Sequence to fold (440 residues):
Amino acid sequence: MSFTRRRFLQTSSAVAAGAAGSQLLGVRRPFAQDTMSFEPEPGAELRLLRWSKFVQGDEDMWIANTKKFTEQTGVPVRIDNESWEDVRPKAAVAANVGSGPDVILGWFDDPHQYPDKLVPLTDLAEYLGNKYGGWYDAAQKYGMRDGEWIGLPLGASGARMVYRQKWVQDAGYEEFPTDYQEVLDIAKKLKANGHPMGMALGHGVGDANGWTHTILWGFGGKMVDEDNNVVLNSQETVDALEYVKELYQSFIPGTLSWLDPNNNKVYLAGDIGATNNGISVWYAAKNSEDPAMQAIAEDTYHAEMPVGPVGKPTELHLFTQAMVFKYSKYPNAAKEYLRFMWEKEQYEPWQLAATGYISHPLADYANNAVWTEIPKSTPYRDCVKNMLWNGYSGDLSYASAAAMADYIIVDMFAQAAAGERSPKEAAEYAARRAERYYRV
Fold:
């Protein structure tokens, strides 16, 4: 069930009450307001750490919006970029040593590893949710802890099946299938035709986590239950591992070591017929001056992630949200910067410039022109609306964040696929690893 405006209004009073004694900054205003601002501290200047771009339009418009913020407020903002894999450890170090960027765009449930180190953002999140149609369920799950917002969701680099239409049609399908058994069938046919599939099984924060969790949940498996008991060692998990072990036989060699950039490069080289990825592959080909890349872009299409035996979407996408750290000398300026960047006047042009590379966490942005003006982006529109959360179906916590950072699910699938362990042995071993984090 999506986090509707009605539901948001029903819960807002309780959230506001819980936040009253917190370290929220700025003047609290009526909840139904359409405008809000936080007065930056005198002499404020900010430093933002964010993940490196995969889509040039994302970075260009983010910088342009930031420049506009500085022109309007007089607050300079330094933007640092790190590789996807480096953001999480750098954020953890900053939290632990009490020094670093004022704002960090982190991954998944990173804020839940050090909630006491973060400036609460409840008033800002309430304002944005009320103004823009409410937060989707997964966004609320990621951003909140104990009734208070500790992160401000930006959205998700959504994953879809990216495929070469002609090669899929040569394999006997009009478009890439969304049924698990048909995916096995087309994978075998693509390989036989010299266009194998390839999906990451290395320690890449986005692609490998995304598709392996989707498959696990699609069979009904999960790391923990609603009471946070580890239930990974189950028949449903073994079934998912058996499936991926068979699917892996149709992969191009080398996927066990793939990080997030690898499938982009291999796809654009024409070596694979399908992979899971964001819209960045198509974007890179479309904006290339190479006619060969233009031809790949023309033949590239996107399909929603396959649905497993549970009969409904079970997607995990690379979720990102902003954190403001308590060591910042300018928390008001940081909150004002986030408010400015999340407002429609900045968010929608940024999302459009990035061709929908980040799927929104606020319901009203489903009406952004990007989803209709760029038809190949449309399959990415509802990624956050339909997604689950890592650690499903338990709580987000230090345990869920640490277990993902340790790549327990990815390693489990990689071991089974490569034959390093049998599916049953891989599930048992992964469950033991998970117990280390979830043990009370």
Summary: The beta strands are 46-51, 77-82, 103-107, 144-145, 148-149, 152-157, 160-164, 274-277, 300-303, 318-324. The CA atoms of residues 49 and 80 lie 5 Å apart. The chain has 19 helices and ten strands. The chain has a mean pLDDT of 92.
